[in-house]
Write a structure and sequence with these properties.
InterPro entries: Ig-like_dom (IPR007110), Ig-like_dom_sf (IPR036179), Ig-like_fold (IPR013783), Ig_V-set (IPR013106), TCR_beta_variable (IPR050413). Keywords: Immunity, Signal. This is Ig-like domain-containing protein. It comes from Sarcophilus harrisii. This protein has about 110 residues and is mainly beta. The protein has a single domain, classed as Immunoglobulins (Immunoglobulin-like). The chain is about 0% helix and about 55% strand. The strands form two sheets. The chain has a six-stranded mixed beta sheet, with no helix packed on it. A four-stranded antiparallel beta sheet has the order 2-4-9-8, with no helix packed on it. The N and C termini lie far apart (about 50 Å). The relative contact order is 0.30. The N terminus is likely disordered.
Amino acid sequence: MSTGFLYFVTCCFLWTVPLDAGVTQIPRNVITRTGQNAKLRCKQNLGHNTMFWYRQDSKMGLQMMFYYNNKQLIENATVSYRFSPDSSENSLLDLYITSLKPEDTAMYLCASSQ
């Protein structure tokens, strides 16, 4: 009987201003199995209308995935249908990843801007 492959997605905080950082990611780390789903939440309290999700892995470096302005998707730079963002309000941008694969292992970062 196989126990399955443990799958790691690491998230960290991306501070947009020194000391009074107003952008957080929940959860900070995700550990799950291949084939499972993950949800990452980005929340900001800076009053910004624009939010981003970035991905950084060892092969491609830092890449923008999604760009939202006023809860509207402006740019989708990801190819995979398994990655989908959702913005129910200007202060939140969720990232859903379905059917996780080993190649999804990366650092996922969020940011906000005016």
